[in-house]
Amino acid sequence: MQGDENTSTSMIDRRALVQRHDPVRTTSNPTSPMQVGNGCFAFGSDITGLQTFVPFATMSEWGWKNDKLPAGYSQESVQGARESHAPPDNDPELTHWLRSNPNRMNLGRIGLCFANSQISEEDVSGCTQHLDLWTGTIHSTMKMKGVDVIVDTVAHPTRDAIGVGIESSLLSANELSIFLDFPFNEGRTKFSAPYVGIWDQNSDHSTEIVESKDTQAMLLRQVDDAKYFVGVQWSHSGKLERQSGHRFVLRLSGSCARLHVTVTFSQQELEVPSPQSIFQASKIYWPLFWQSGGAIDLSKSTDTRWAELERRLVLSQYATAVNAVGHDPPQESGLVNLGWFGKFHMEMNWWHSAHLALFNRWSLLERSLDVYDRFLPSAKRLATTQGFKGARWPKMADPSGNTSPGEINSLLIWQQPHPILFAELDYRAHPSKQTLYKWKAVIEATAEFMASFPRKSEQSGVYCLGPQLHLMSENTDSNETYNPSFELHYWRIGLSIAEEWWNRLGLEPKAEWSTVRHNLAPLPTENGVYIMWQEIEDMWTNYNWEHPALVAMYGWLPGHNLDQEIMLRTSKEVWNIWRLDRCWGWDFGMLAMNAARSGFPEKAVEFLLHENFEFDDVGMVLGTDQVPSPYFPGMGSLLYACAFMAAGWDGAPSLHAPGFPSQGWNVKHEGLSKAL
Hints:
By secondary structure, the chain is of the alpha+beta class. 33% of the residues lie in helices and 19% in strands.
């Protein structure tokens, strides 16, 4: 039967593909907003289409601030500690300040209110909320005090602004309006989820009306060293007035049946776009987004699991386009809330962004790919400070490239080869001298560090990784960990691509790169399987939890120079023994690619739909007690894995969609690129 054959011929109806997964809600989710945004700015709404009941965040990629300095410190002394990459061990206050600063802000809250009182959830009934993915519009209907209210919410595709349309006879009676409120923000805690900001603190920040007109106002916000403007425009005569503290209410003059409002956030005082222009821009942008790049349609499959996997695929694309395609790598919780003070993790940049290459959304990926050029000076300083050549890429960073103190932040290494793999994907998509020279400086500095970091054993003559270092799993003693299998394998691949890059450029080979690559320590084995690191004890009972790096060696990464029999035994051992209840997010995309490349496509699908890989009703991957919810690396890994399974990989079988089962799955795909 056609539905039982993994084949594809006709073009995909992209609108039908997208809209069959439009999320619908009838109640608020207190921890997961429905969002609009543009990848650099996002607005999270509750069931009202605004933030009436639930103080979800409004966040942008530029919305950072620094807390006040610790007592007794000056800017110069703090900068000195930052540049040394080693704050004093006996100064926990300074260490915390460096780790937590800068931190991200919640820019403000926008909600519905009655003329003389706040709205309670008891005032609202009959709620239905629909996210129209095709146009990026949240359509919310409800009854307030028994009266119909309709709210439409969109975000501008290139501005940090939302447009809101409200329709109700409560407006005609002058009973309904909107409020704006603004919290204090500080880096007191590592996680601020599900809500961001301190709402009951009126001191230490200011909100002033600097311009007030009949249909427009401009507010100036000051939070510690951060300053930004909030522009508000409305379609009916009225005045924005301070109600109390940092809360403002729009007082309309007379009645109206419909009210359209723009709220825009910016670092400079800018012209406020009209609500109508934002709605129009959103209706143009999102169909173009969905019709560009790659797509995967599973709807002709007879395996009933197709609908959930396709739902995850579609909603993950929307969520990442709203939260995670800015000019810096995203933080792990996107623009929804705060994890790790809002800073981003460079080892996660692959899972956040690499899927954009396979889906051929290069215009979005290019926004942040220059991060390696921007961070190159600070990465070189970091390597030099530690006595190495080249550039050492940080683990946890802010937009300036400053690394954050901490043991794991200082000792993690698996982010190091990432830019070389990004460069290789770029070259495959754009094979030109321009691409080769675009990445030349980054690849050279990256590989120089990779060649100088391993230590040569005087006894064996091989080059060893560690100790001290932290593995992908981050659950081992850095002083005992050396020659880890995954990191050794990734090191070889990275240096190999760097050598090939030099060959493509026609440059003289770098002898040190080749020497180190050929003489790296062999991957450690025990009882016929690869093990996490050399001489590890009781791995399968004491360390069989968190990120299973061994499967990444053959799946996400190609298996160059691996013993295939040993690798297959290793993979099966991981599948059978690993504590998947203590894994999360990108682990499951990694496991799926390992199963697919190993020739077990059914197992690959099982991993992508595993009970511990949970997606909520709007497609957000749930976190754990280790990471915040939502968890965007999980969405990125699902997208990368599905593209990998559909379009194939280097050396994949000559089959259509080689990573999917041949029975029960009909996989249509278009516009995808093959993985490494």
